[in-house]
Structures are given as C-alpha cells and as structure tokens.
Design a protein that fits this description.
Layout lengths: L12 H10 L6 H26 L12
C-alpha cells in the first residue's frame, strides 16, 4: 500500500531494536505496527468476550429487552 504521508514516531534504541527483531524480511515498520495493533485489538476483544462468558446470568440483559 503506497503511503501518501508519513509521520515520525520517536522510539528508544531498545524499542527500535526489538521492533527490528519482530519485522520480517521485506516488511515495513508500517506493516509491522499495523500487525501489532491488529493483534492487540484481537486480544482486547477476546478479554471482553471472556468477561461476558464469565458474567453472572443476572448481570446480562436479553437482546429482546433492549
């Protein structure tokens, strides 16, 4: 995907090295950060789903009642 504009994000040398180790050959930092954000969002969704599954049934509202 061609980028029309770019932004610089200052990171420490340690973080830059760690990101570099995660990056695959030919992968851009933009691709890597996008992939990391997608994984983070999936984890957040999984945590929310687990909370709903573990919730007491009296804490839940039937969709027909909404």
């Amino acid at each position: 995907m061609p980028l029309t504009k770019t932004k610089r994000i200052p990171v420490s040398v340690d973080i830059w090295k760690r990101l570099g180790k995660e990056k695959e050959a030919g992968e851009t930092y933009d691709d890597l950060i996008s992939k990391l954000l997608q994984a983070h969002n999936r984890l957040k969704l999984m945590k929310k789903m687990k909370q709903v599954e573990e919730a007491e049934s009296e804490d839940l509202v039937d969709l027909d009642d909404v």
